[in-house]
Structure formats: C-alpha cells, structure tokens
Amino acid sequence: MNSRILFSYPISLLFLLLVSCGKDNETLKINDFTETKTIILEPYKNYPYSMMNIWVKGQVNDTILIRLNSLDSKPILKLSGKFDERWYTDYYGEGPKIIIFDPHKATQGYLEIKASL
After folding, report:
1. In Å, what is the CA distance from 95 to each residue of 42, 52, 61, 88?
2. Maximum distance among all alpha carbons in the chain?
3. In 3-state terms, what secondary structure has residue 20?
C-alpha cells in the first residue's frame, strides 16, 4: 500500500506541472460577425509536438477567412455556405500560434473553430 502512494505522488505532480504550463487546444464558437476573433495556442514546455490541426464547421451567408499569425497574412481557409473543413500543418513546438477568424463578407451564421497542437 505504501509503495502505491509513493509511486502515484510523482505521477500526480508531473500531471499538474504539464497542465499548468500552456494551452495547446481551444474551441471558439462564433455567431457574431461584426469583428475578428483570435485563438492563441501555447505549447507545453518539453512536450513533443508534430502537427497543428484546425477544424472549422458551420454555415455562413457569405465568405469568411481563417488566417495564421496576422490579419495581413494570406488566408489558409476561405469558406462560404455550409462547411466542415480540416486544415493541418507540421508543428514542432516553435512557440505560440495565432489563429484569426476574419468575417470578411459574412454577416450571419454560426460556426465552431477547434484548434490544437
């Protein structure tokens, strides 16, 4: 019994340490198309990453854009109507990633953006 406690304590401490270091996934639900919205993903320290995924699902009345890093960057996704898309790229923990929702021409609709490292 005593050895189980001694074994579980370091594992619990390691889990708490990992949970407190970053935020490597987030979900954003949007039904207000008056302004841009941003997701910032922060990698955990000393955690091996290999991919970044973005899922966009919903329906809008016109075109929306999803961009990386800044509003001036070229869009990675240009969507309109009803959609359920996944976009992915290599990612090896090289710092925070910024995902930007730009309503572009859309004024109505709903969508959900899930992003993870």
Report:
1. 7, 12, 35, 17
2. 63
3. coil
| Amino acid at the residue 39 | I
CA distance 24 to 44: 7
Output the six-digit token pair for 52: 């970044």
- What is the Cα–Cα distance from 34 to 102, expressed in whole angstroms? 9
Distance CA 45, CA 47 (A): 6
pLDDT at 89 over 80: yes
* C-alpha distances out from residue 28 to 6, 18, 39, 47, Å: 40, 23, 8, 24
Within a 10 A sphere around the Cβ of 72, how many other Cβ atoms?
6
In tens, the pLDDT along 24-66 reads: 899 999 999 999 999 999 998 888 899 999 999 999 999 999 9
- Asked whether 113 and 54 are in contact (CB, 8 A), the reply is yes
Beta strands 37-41 and 77-90, pairing class: unpaired
